[in-house]
């Protein structure tokens, strides 16, 4: 229990660490001698992004974006706007968008369109968690830590009303009836 909430551990700190290392090795080998621009999507990505960048051997450029969404999330990506846009130049450069979690896919599809309009050499997607149950827009994830079917996830950057981002593991916030869920590494 954390205060009035029950959080069930889903992904242990050590499992996260191992998957972050694995993603870093894959990026190291794909981007040798290329210095990609890593763009983190705030706020949820802060721990994953820092751990990933620390684990990489290759040099990278880093930047962040923050987006706000208005109205019903499942209508269109036109309801998403930036509260902080990309500041570094990505033109002609390899870009990797780094997300903590992909849920409906609307944020990512908005970001990919926005970044492609700036004419990068390439755009790849890196996400710690690919959560499937609410997907609206198909997204191709190039580097993925874990695929999770469902659940309200908190910890390791993920929040519930800004709480629980600090937890070193990923858990589900249990509210009332909870059905069976599955997690698997990628
Ligand atoms: C989360 C997450 C992604 C987005 C994914 O951010 O970090 O950016 O939602 O959801 P989607 O696939 O349904 O678009 P959130 O808006 O909760 O903000 P936060 O990162 O500050 O927690």
Low-confidence stretches: none
Count of β-strands: 10
Give the overall shape.
Answer: globular
Briefly, what CATH class? Alpha Beta
Fold and architecture overview:
The chain is of the alpha/beta class. It has helices at about 15-30, 45-55, 105-115; strands at about 5-10, 35-40, 60-70, 80-85, 95-100, 120-130, 145-150, 155, 170-175, 185. Helix 1 (about 15-30) packs across helix 2 (about 45-55). The mean pLDDT is about 90.
Key features of this structure:
three-stranded antiparallel sheet; 33% strand; 21% helix; 10 strands; alpha/beta; Rossmann fold; globular; binds 1-O-pyrophosphono-5-O-phosphono-alpha-D-ribofuranose; seven-stranded mixed sheet
Can you give me a brief rundown of this structure?
The protein is an alpha/beta fold and 186 residues long. It contains 3 helices and 10 strands. α1 (13-30) packs across α2 (46-55).
How does the SSE layout of this entry go?
Elements: E1 6-11, H1 13-30, E2 37-42, H2 46-55, E3 61-69, E4 80-84, E5 94-102, H3 106-116, E6 122-131, E7 143-148, E8 153-154, E9 170-174, E10 183-185
Parallel strand pairs: 2-3, 2-5, 5-6, 6-7
Antiparallel strand pairs: 1-9, 3-4, 7-10, 8-9
Helix pairs in contact: 1-2
1-O-pyrophosphono-5-O-phosphono-alpha-D-ribofuranose binds near residues 102 and 159.
């Amino acid at each position: 229990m954390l205060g009035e909430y029950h959080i069930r551990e889903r992904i242990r700190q050590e499992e996260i660490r191992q998957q972050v290392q694995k993603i870093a090795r894959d990026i190291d080998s794909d981007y040798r001698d290329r210095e990609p621009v890593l763009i983190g999507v705030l706020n949820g990505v802060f721990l994953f992004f820092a751990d990933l960048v620390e684990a990489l051997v290759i040099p990278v450029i880093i930047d962040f974006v923050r987006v706000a969404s208005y109205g019903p999330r499942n209508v269109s990506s036109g309801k998403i706007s930036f509260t902080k846009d990309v500041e570094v130049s990505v033109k002609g450069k390899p870009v990797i968008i780094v997300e903590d979690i992909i849920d409906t896919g609307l944020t990512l599809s908005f970001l990919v369109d926005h970044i492609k309009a700036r004419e990068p050499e390439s755009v790849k997607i890196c996400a710690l968690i690919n959560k499937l149950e609410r997907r609206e827009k198909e997204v191709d994830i190039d580097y993925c830590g874990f695929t999770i079917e469902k659940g309200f996830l908190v910890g390791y950057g993920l929040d519930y009303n800004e709480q629980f981002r600090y937890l070193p593991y990923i858990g589900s916030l249990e509210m009332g009836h909870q059905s069976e869920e599955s997690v698997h590494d990628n």
